[in-house]
Amino acid sequence: MKENETTDTGCNEVSDYHLINPKNTINILKKYDIHFQKKYGQNFLIDSHVMNKIIRAADIGSDDLVLEIGPGIGTMTQFLCENAGRVIAVEIDKKLIPVLEDTLERYDNVNIIQGDILKQDITKLAEEYNGGKPVKIVANLPYYITTPIIMGVLENEVPVKSLTVMVQKEVAERMQAKPGTKVYGALSLAVQYYSKPYLAANVPENCFMPRPNVASAVINLDCFDEPPVKVKNKKLMFEIIRASFQQRRKTLCNGIRNYSGLDIPNEAVVNTLEEMGLDASVRGEKLTLDQYAAFTNMIEKFNVCS
């Protein structure tokens, strides 16, 4: 890896070869006759300030193995290579592999893998390239698969220390939402069960080429070694959470009663809520993760489906 000058903040200055420079991005696109693929959610970042915020939020150091999802033409990958010990870049679009080999030619600490991240064995990658130690995931995710990718990583409990990703702003807000807010929901609870979310930056549309139709945000998910709540039946808890938000204006009792995946007597639900000091008319959006865990532990014996 070649030496690069850095700013006082520890992030990289923009050099004449960096693709974060819009002119360089345009030149590469022309050179390889690349047309933006909507189906892959290809919007290339062209703002160095946002790039530096991503690097800082991910807290990348020379001892880190970074797994980048969807490197595109290598814009973020260049900065990752200049800060991390090694970068594994997984790109689904076969046509972009020769482009990446070109734009990342100066770096000897990057491995390019062509494939679908949802089909990659991250545990195997961590073992092969990082001695089994947790990796850091950094990505400008295609928005149409944001949730499946993030939840796939978290739910499979693969060795990941953190995820720092560019997502649709609305999704970032849902991930860190608190009980009682309009955007609080099943995604909020799932993300917060596995990690501590932190909104690192809001990113306007003009920071990309081409401009997306939605505002974006950078969110950092610092993965827990152990979940913050103790629940005996995790699967049941998330079934209850899904039931609670299936029709968010309904009460928790009605949500559970109308959910096909659960068979819990309504009387047991009401009695359990009262035992917890909650009214039978409470909506699921009012309960904290702690309360969902406690409710699950108390109600499990009544679930005929378990």
What this model shows, in words?
By secondary structure, this protein is α/β, with parallel strands linked by helices. It has 2 domains: 202 residues, Vaccinia Virus protein VP39 (Rossmann fold, 3-Layer(aba) Sandwich), CATH 3.40.50; 69 residues, Helicase, Ruva Protein, domain 3, CATH 1.10.8.100. Helices cover 36% and strands 17% of the residues. It is built from 12 helices and 9 strands. The strands form 2 sheets. It has a 7-stranded mixed β-sheet with strand order 4-3-2-5-6-9-7, with helices on both faces. Strand 5, helix 6 and strand 6 form a beta-alpha-beta unit. Helix 6 crosses helix 8 and helix 9 crosses helix 12. The N terminus is likely disordered.
Task: Show the helix and strand layout.
Layout lengths: L21 H10 L12 E2 L2 H11 L6 E5 L5 H7 L4 E6 L5 H7 L6 E5 L7 H9 L4 E6 L5 H10 L4 E9 H7 L10 H9 E9 L4 E2 L6 E8 L10 H13 L5 H6 L8 H10 L13 H11 L7
Structural class: alpha/beta
**What is the H/E order?**
HEHEHEHEHEHEHHEEEHHHH
**Level-2 CATH architecture of the largest domain:** 3-Layer(aba) Sandwich
CATH superfamily of the largest domain: Vaccinia Virus protein VP39
Largest sheet: 7 strands, mixed
Return Rg in Å.
22 Å
Trace the largest sheet across and list its strands: 4-3-2-5-6-9-7
Shape: elongated
Total beta strand runs: 9
Helix content: 25-40%
How many separate helices? 12
Distance between the termini: 54 Å
> Which topology of the largest domain does CATH recognise?
Rossmann fold
Approximately how much beta-strand content do the residues carry? Answer: 15-25%
Please tell me the total number of domains.
2
**Average pLDDT value?**
91
